[in-house]
């Protein structure tokens, strides 16, 4: 059984803070669950380009407001209670009107130390490349 509290992650290497977001990584690849789970803050007034071409992601908003704009699609509002799933590895823009608190689940799981590259992509560890969803 795994039991963690957000306080266990804050201030550690699994509390990744950038200019536009802060990802507190609760469950990681090493935990062996087959997915990772993050408590993420999207900072108010920011826009972030993201493209999880190596991961599927589901996101549930528990606080704040903003919007997501998948490439070539319409803009979807985000508010508490909104779930979106990037089941097609969609490249997207995430905009926060106010700070949004999001619970994010990734498959395959991340190791906990990833940051987005110039394209907004999390790199995929070598051992997971054969199992990755196709873009």
UniProtKB/TrEMBL annotation:
Residues 115-135 are annotated as: Disordered. Keywords: Lyase. GO terms for biological process: ectoine biosynthetic process. Residues 126-135 have a biased composition (Basic and acidic residues). Pathway: Amine and polyamine biosynthesis; ectoine biosynthesis; L-ectoine from L-aspartate 4-semialdehyde: step 3/3. Signal peptide: none annotated. Its EC number is 4.2.1.108. It catalyses: (2S)-4-acetamido-2-aminobutanoate = L-ectoine + H2O. GO terms for molecular function: ectoine synthase activity. SUPFAM superfamilies: RmlC-like cupins. Belongs to the ectoine synthase family. NCBIfam families: PRK13290.1. Catalyzes the circularization of gamma-N-acetyl-alpha,gamma-diaminobutyric acid (ADABA) to ectoine (1,4,5,6-tetrahydro-2-methyl-4-pyrimidine carboxylic acid), which is an excellent osmoprotectant. This is L-ectoine synthase. It comes from Paenibacillus sambharensis. The lineage of its organism: Bacteria, Bacillati, Bacillota, Bacilli, Bacillales.
């Amino acid at each position: 059984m795994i039991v963690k509290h957000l306080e266990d992650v804050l201030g550690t290497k699994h509390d990744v803070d950038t200019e536009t977001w802060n990802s507190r990584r609760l469950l990681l690849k090493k935990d062996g669950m087959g997915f990772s789970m993050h408590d993420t803050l999207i900072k108010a007034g920011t826009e972030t380009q993201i493209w999880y071409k190596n991961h599927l992601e589901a996101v549930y908003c528990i606080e704040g407001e903003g919007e997501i704009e998948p490439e070539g699609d319409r803009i979807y509002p985000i508010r508490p209670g909104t779930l979106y799933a990037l089941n097609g590895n969609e490249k997207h823009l995430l905009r926060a009107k106010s700070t949004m608190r999001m619970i994010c689940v990734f498959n395959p799981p991340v190791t906990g130390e990833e940051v987005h590259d110039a394209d907004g992509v999390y790199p995929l560890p070598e051992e997971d490349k054969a199992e990755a969803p196709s873009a």
